[in-house]
Beta-galactosidase
Amino acid sequence: MATFDISGDQFRYEGKPLRILSGAIHYFRVVPDYWKDRLLKLKACGFNTVETYVPWNVHEPRKGEFRFEGMADLESFARLAGELGLHVIVRPSPYICAEWEFGGLPAWLLEDANVRLRSCDPAYLRHVDDYYDELLPRLKPLLCTSGGPIVAMQVENEYGSYGSDKAYLEYLREAMVRRGMDVLLFTSDGPEDHMLQGGTIDGVLATVNFGSDPAGAFRKLREYRPEGPLMCMEFWNGWFDHWMEEHQTRPAGEVADALDELLKEGASVNFYMFHGGTNFGFLNGANHIKRYEPTVNSYDYDTLLGESGEPTAKFFAVREVLERHFELPPLVLPEPIARRSYGPVKLKRRALLLEQLEALSAPISRANPEPMERLGQAYGYILYSARVTGPTSGMSLTIQEVRDRALVFADGRYVGVVERWNPAALPLEVPAEGVRLDILVENMGRVNYGPLLRDPKGITEGVRLDNQFIHGWTIYPLPMESLEGLEFTSAAEGETGADSAGHSEISAASGPAFYQGVFEAEEAADTFLRLDGWTKGNVFLNGFHLGRYWNAGPTRTLYVPAPLLKKGINELIVFELHGTQDPVVLSTDTPDLG
C-alpha cells in the first residue's frame, strides 16, 4: 500500500513531496504490443506519471456487454506502467471528450430520446451505475492504496464547459467513493469563471487545462481555490486535425517556453498529449461549433511522439526544459521500431455494395427512415431503400437532417451527394414506372464536445420530394463489423474518376464497392498506406479496421503498426464510395499528415 495525498500546496507520495510530471497515452489508441515502447519513451523523456482516459463506448459497446481485452485491456496497461516505475492517473468519467466518438459515451444511450446526458437524470445515472459496477472493481486492486500504481482519478471531464449540475458531480464522486475509489479525486476545467463555477465541487481537487499563459491560468484558479497544489491537467502542446482543413502544428520552442513558465509556477503538469496514437475504425469524434467538423483518423496531435511512436523535436525540447528544473538520468531510448515499404498492392477483386446487401445486413422495414441508434446500430453506414412512384417532373429530393454524408442512387444510377455541412437538394426525375431510391449514409463521427453532444446518425427526420415525404422504407444497417460474407469477383478497371472538386462520378456499373487484394510481408514492420487515386472510404487489414481515408485531406496515409501484419500473406480490403480508375494501394515507409 502507498499514500498519495495533499499537504498545503504540495502533492505527497509516501509522505514525501512529489511534482507530478505526466504525459497522456491512451491505451485504446495504441496496439498493446507497443504499450511498453511508448511508456519507456515517456519515462526516458523525464516523466514520472502516465495519464489515460477511459472510454465508456469501448468498454460497453452494447448495453450490458463489457469488453476489457486487447486494446481495451486497461488493467494490463496500468499494471505495465506500474512495473516500469510510473504512477498512473486514470480519468474514468462517463464523458471524456478526447476527440473520441461521442466523447466516449456509448451510442446506445441515444436509443432513448428522453435521456438527458451528463446530468442527474435518473435514467442516465442508472446506466452510469451499471458501468461503474463493472469498471471500478477492476481498478480497485490497481489503486496505490491497494499497492497499485493509480494515484488519482477524475470525477468528470471539463464539466464547466457543458453544464452546472453540481448534484450530478456530487453523485459521480459518491459513486466512486462507494465503490472503493479511495485515491485522490479531481476535476479539470478551463481557467475561466463560468467553467470553474460549473465544473468544480467542494472536497475535490480542482485542476485547469490550457496551452499557454500558465501564470494567468493559475491566477484564475487561485480565485476559486486559494490553497492546494497547482496542476495543469491538460497542457495542450499540439492539436488535432479535422477533415477538409490544414494539418495543425505548434512550434517546439513555443511549447518549451510555456512549459518553463509553468514549472516556474511550482505546478505539476500532464501533457495532453505525450503520444496521440490513432483513431482506428469508426471511433474518431467530431466538433460542431459553427458547423460539423469530423476528426481525421490520425491522432498524431503534433506532440512529443509521432503517431507511429518516433520522438519528435518537441520530445527533445521538453526534456531539455525538464533537465533545467529536475535531476534526470541519462537519456536512454528503446530501439527504434522498423519501418518498411511493401510497395504497391493491386486489389484485383471487387464486390459491389448494392449487390451484397443481404450478405452484410438483415433488412428492416419501416414507414419512415430511422436513425442508426433506434435500430441498435452504433457505427458505420446505413442504407435506406424505397420505391418511388411516378411520373414526377421538376421536383427536388431533400434529405431532412442527414448525418453525416449521403450518396443517392436512382435504379443504381448515381444522383449526387448530400452532406451535413452542405445540405443541398438534388433534382430527381421519376419516370412513369417509378424508381428504386437508395440512400447510403455514412456516420462520420459523433460530436464529442459542446452543447450539440446528442448526435444521432443516419436520416433523423425524413426524405421528401419537394414537400411530400416518401414512406415505405427498407433499411440495411451496415456497421461493417465483419466482411466475411462478401463474394468477390474480378474487378474492372478505368470505370470512373474524380472531378476537380474531389467528387467522383460513379457509373451505374460501379457504385460503392469493396476491393480486395493480398500482399506478402517477409518480415512485419510498421508501414503507411497511401490511397492516391481513391476518393473516400475505409481500409481493412487482415480483418482489422484501420480507419477512414478521404482525398479531402489533410491526412494522406493510414498508419499500419507491425503487429497488425502477418509474416506471409496479408489481406487488404478497401471500401470505396466513389470508384477508382486504378485499384492500387501503396505501402510506404513515410507518413503524410498533410
About this structure: The domain at 357-478 is CATH 2.60.120.260 (Jelly Rolls). Confidence is low (pLDDT under 50) at residues 493-509. The chain has three domains: 19-323, 343-351+486-588, 357-478. Residues 75 and 139 are 7 Å apart (CA to CA).
